[in-house]
Amino acid sequence: MKRHHYLRPVALAVLAALSSPAALADSTQLESVTITGAGDKLGVGLLQQQEGARARSDVSKAALEKQSPTSNIYQGINMLPGVNASSQDNSGMFGGALTIRGFNSDQIGVTINGVPVNDSGSYSVYPQEFVDLENLCQGSVTQGSSDTDAPHMGASGGNMSFVTCDPEKERRVRFAQSLGSNSLQRTYIRGDTGLFADGKARAFASYSHSETDKWKGAGGMKRDHVDTGIRYDFSGGYINASVLYNRQIGNAFGTPTLQQLQQTGYGYDYSTSFIPGHLTPKNGTAQKETGPNPAYYQLQQNPFENVIAKVDAVLKLGPDTRVKIQPYFWYGYGGATSQQTQSESAFLNKSTHTDTAAKDLNGDGDTLDTIVVNGSSITRTRRPGITVTMEQSLGNHLLQAGVWYERAQHIQTGPESLTNADGSPQDPWMQSNLVTRPDGSLYQYRDWETVSTATQLFAIGTFNFLDDRLGINAGLRTPQIKREFTNHANDGCGASSKTCAAAYDYTINKTYRETLPSFGMRYYLAPKQQVFFNITKNYRAVPNYAYSSSNGNVQVINGQVVMSNDVVPETSVNTDLGYRWQGDILTLSGSLFNVDFRNRQANSYDPVTLKSVNINAGGVHTWGGEIELGTVPVKGWSAYASFTSNHSEIQNNLSWKDPSGNNTVLATQGNDFPMTPRWMAALSLQYSPGAWYVRTDVKHTGKQFATLVNDEVVPEYTTVDLDAGYRFGNIGMLKNPTLKLNLSNMFNTSYRIPSSYKVNAADTVRYNLGAPRSVAVTMSVDL
Predict the structure, then answer these.
(1) pLDDT digits (tens, 9 = 90+) for 649-702
(2) Element containing residue 322 per DSSP (H, E)
(3) How far is CA 250 from the centre of its chain?
(4) Residues 297, 298, 304, CA angle at the centre, nearest 5°?
(5) Confidence band of 18 (pLDDT split at 50, 70, 90)
(6) Half-sphere exposure (CA, 13 Å, Cβ side) for 494?
(7) Which terminus of the chain, N or C, has less C-beta within 10 A?
């Protein structure tokens, strides 16, 4: 891989700012400094004044609306302290990865309009699926500490929340069209009713269609998205409902290993042809198809469809009492498909619990062959839930208590389908033309059903003393989750005459519960200065795939499947000590943090083999500091900066049992935990004198490791983005016409991010590569 030299972020920021039209403005006039946007503490939209006792950072609509409209939620928060976000391409449509303080995204609770959207089994997050950026009004990150009333069972590292905008009070129709690099095109339309029903109700609906090509290799992504919302206000409260729908399908990016990257270069990707293709069927001859290497791009797709429906009902029961009732429903279907080979003599034989049954797939009259097929990892989730909260004000104090309940049915299968002559899948959604076993049942490389029933009681007390100078917050929650994991006998043992747990019907029932206290204080040293302290215990229940045979946690003993390695939930204790300055021009917030893990779960996922691995990494100690500061606009100029220093140390060597039952010891004591950059810095500089604006965002990400044994390093890198826009005056019936430019990775930086870190010697680290420079132009108008 070509070696790159990286400039420091401050130097790049100055260079980017000087290259913008804002830097060329006339500076010869000597005038007194004036401040625009009186009372506006957002600056570029990346900092709000806080009064809480926890470290928290926010992104407002003022910042989000300047990003490329195809951006995902990870890209929206990447400048915040502690956040290390990346995307597989600049558009954000292909998804991405994220860590906060070294916590992976599957350790951070994520809500959209209060609905938990982490996968109910693995806690994974797919940021491109949830919402259109134009409809998003607020994003927030609570670093390290999970909120006491948050509806999560897997949030050991804090939480993120995103809220869509309410319907507009004035009737309007907004239309936007985007064009850009890699054949990017996007059409967006939103209609708002304005106030109706005697001024008590308002509603909106929006639709977008987006598509783009991959920046390397063949293929692309298509996405259709619908957001709707309705709000009804009445004298005793309000009802606010939303439905968010997403359907997308696209080709995956090739994720090379470091060795492949060094051998083939930065453009490594899946094959664009199906050569050598299918062999001509021939009776009596053992024909072994191998398929292209790398795999054929048409057999590496990611179809997915999901719905997030939510109702908020807030009712005032008395002068100081109110109740919130928040039912929701989450539905999802889809997953990843990949090029696989299927032996005609390696189908499940239920009587012997082996994959030794045979079936002719290519129609040549024998069962001697191995055929290239379209394999998959499909998930179907139905997930209703509800949160009910009572609030009671007592003068300057507030008491809250409530309950959260959810029942998630999570069906995970691995069907196969035959491919067409050109290698394309017969059905990438894996709903028709599927491969069956000799007995007529569907082939499945996995066949799991997990019913997860979650309940949580919570109570929060917020108390203010000394004329509100002192604020104390105490909370307690008691999460409990019952996992009912059923493995239906499947073909996951592979082409082997040996038995394994996958070939058996078995059920594992596990219930996890914990008591999680939190305590925080905030004190005003002066009207503009605060100090705060917080300590919170967090919790992450065991992911459901820990009960599968691929992790070595279940074994077949005397013909019975037993849990031979009981996985323990992950807990963490997060402590913050912070300071805030909230002035008329400058707002600053900083904190020192310390996190002590127990039984930290180390998880890896291989997109080629479609297998997950989970082991107990024991104790991990993380500590560091974060600071962010922002200004209000001064003569059109505003700025935001954040800095993070992070250290993460594994406390012991790791011992675990692999799927074959062999004990393995990894020398990890004293090592950095993977995917934890030692330091990060971000700078956003904006000039907005009136009708136009220019903003540059610079993000530096320090060195990190890709393995538990720290034998593979991810180099530091810096990216620079440039956003600009011009707001035209109204033209007849055309209102607020706006032209927007988004230039991503302006200096064409090459970098790599692990798609998943390496847990053990059998794992392989694969990398997502940073996309080169790209541009998007958007024209929007209201009618």
Answers:
(1) 999 888 766 555 567 788 889 999 999 999 999 999 999 998 999 999 999 999
(2) strand 321-343
(3) 18
(4) 105
(5) very low
(6) 7
(7) C
Query: What is the pLDDT averaged over residues 370-397?
Result: 96
Please provide the DSSP assignment of 553-591 as one string. SEEEETTEEEE-SPPPPEEEEEEEEEEEEE-SSEEEEEE
* CA–CA distance, 446 with 598 (Å, rounded to integer): 31
In the prediction, which pLDDT does 655 show? 76
What is the distance of C-alpha 87 from the center of its chain? 10
What's the rounded Cα separation, in Å, for the pair 42 and 383? 36
- The one-letter amino acid code at 700 reads H
Q: Name the one residue in this structure whose structure tokens are 């951006």.
A: 71
Hey, what are 218's tokens?
């063949």
Q: Which long-range contacts (CB under 8 A, 24 or more apart) does 495-499 make?
A: 495/343, 495/345, 495/346, 495/355, 496/346, 496/354, 496/355, 497/354, 497/356, 498/354, 499/352, 499/353, 499/354, 499/556
b/e map of 282-318 (b: 16 or more CB within 10 Å)?
A: eeeeebebebbebbbbbbbbbbbbbebbbbbbbeeee
In whole angstroms, give the CA distance from residue 70 to residue 92.
6
Q: Which residue has the tokens 């132009």?
A: 777
C-alpha distance from residue 125 to each of 345, 364, 646, 717 (Å): 37, 44, 23, 24
The amino acid at 296: Y
Q: How far apart are CA 407 and CA 455, in angstroms?
A: 9
Single-letter amino acid code for the residue at 74: Y
Give backbone dihedrals phi and psi of 178, rounded to 5 degrees, phi first. -120, 145
| Least confident span in 317-321, 454-458, 560-564 | 560-564
Q: How far apart are CA 518 and CA 476, in angstroms?
A: 6
| % the chain with pLDDT above 90 | 80
Identify whether the C-beta of residue 373 lies closer than 8 Å to the C-beta of residue 424: no
On whether the CB atoms of residues 556 and 500 are closer than 8 A, the answer is yes
In the prediction, which pLDDT does 29 show?
A: 32
Q: Following DSSP, what letter does each residue of 702-752 receive, concatenated?
A: --EESBTT--SEE--EEEEEEEEEEEPPPBTTBEEEEEEEEEESTT----E
Residue 384: phi and psi, rounded to 5, are -85, 150
* Residue tagged 């391409």 (tokens): 89
Question: Is the sign of the CA dihedral 488, 490, 492, 498 positive or negative?
Answer: positive
**pTM of structure:** 0.90
Percent helix, percent strand, percent coil in the chain, to nearest 5: 5, 55, 40
Q: Which of 154, 79, 44, 51 is nearest to 396 (CA)?
A: 51
Q: Residue 421 has which token pair?
A: 């002559």
Q: Whose CA is closest to 56, among 83, 37, 96?
A: 83
At 191-238, the pLDDT tens digits run 999 999 999 999 999 999 999 999 999 999 999 999 999 999 999 999
Which pLDDT score is estimated for 13? 36
Enter the tokens of residue 552.
Answer: 């070595």
The CB density around residue 606, as the number of other CB atoms within 10 Å, is 18
Tokens describing residue 309: 């429906």
CA distance 144 to 107: 10
Q: Which helix (H) or strand (E) holds 64?
A: helix 61-64
Q: Which two tokens stand for residue 328?
A: 């929701």
Phi, psi angles (nearest 5°) of residue 106:
-80, 5
> What is the SS3 assignment for 545?
helix
Q: Coil, helix or strand for 318?
A: strand
CA distances to 82, 293, 564, 768 from 756, in Å:
19, 22, 26, 9
Distance separating alpha carbons of residues 322 and 400, to the nearest angstrom:
10
Phi, psi of 57 (to 5 degrees): -130, 150
